[in-house]
Design brief:
The protein has 167 residues and is mainly alpha-helical. Among the domains are: 9-64; 120-166, no CATH class. 54% of the residues lie in helices and 12% in strands. It is built from six helices and two strands. The chain has helices spanning 9-22, 25-32, 36-45, 47-73, 103-113, 146-166; strands at residues 76-85, 91-100. A hairpin with a 5-residue loop joins strand 1 (76-85) and strand 2 (91-100). Helix 1 runs parallel beside helix 4 and helix 3 (36-45) packs across helix 4 (47-73).
Length: 167
């Protein structure tokens, strides 16, 4: 039976360094030479290691966000081929540098950071006869998960059915 490898200070440093640079627990586990499961177990029982893990993930996400802002606002240079026709009529392929910006990255960055662009969850409430029921003054449901929204919808339908039975 193979002996388990110990999680040494060196292995922790390797793991955290790779997590810092890649954001991937799998790649960090390979660098630390210990299974993912063992790293997650250590995270569960060692609050200092869990804090270091969270810091490295936050650093990586900050870098990703900075890169998306850079690409969406300033763009990224790339070589684009085009056909040049010479005076003698022959053609040759040349390249020019174009700056490509990403509207999609800009949209996602705004949605993640700007309160006006944050997505909201839509809630559809229908009556038992499946007609749309206008609902005014509903609270903000953006903090609810899908199961909570489903439960709310079920309860609303029961209330509409009860109200229709009383009428």
């Amino acid at each position: 039976m193979a002996r388990k490898k110990a999680i040494t200070k060196r292995r922790r440093a390797l793991f955290l360094d790779r997590l810092h640079s890649t954001g991937s627990v799998t790649k960090a586990a390979v660098a630390g030479e210990i299974s993912r499961r063992a790293w997650y177990a250590l995270r569960d029982r060692d609050p200092l290691f869990a804090d270091a893990w969270d810091e490295e993930e936050a650093f990586f996400l900050d870098n990703c966000e900075a890169e998306s802002i850079k690409r969406s606002i300033f763009g990224e240079d790339e070589e684009a081929p085009y056909t040049h026709v010479k005076q003698d009529g022959s053609k040759e392929t040349r390249f020019r540098t174009i700056t490509r910006k990403s509207d999609r990255l800009l949209e996602l960055t705004l949605k993640s950071r700007h309160p006006l662009y944050k997505p909201t969850k839509a809630l559809e409430v229908t009556s038992p006869d499946r007609s749309m029921t206008p609902v005014a003054g509903l609270p903000d449901f953006s903090a609810l998960d899908d199961e909570e929204l489903r439960l709310y919808t079920v309860l609303q339908r029961k209330l509409h059915a009860a109200a229709a039975g009383e009428a």
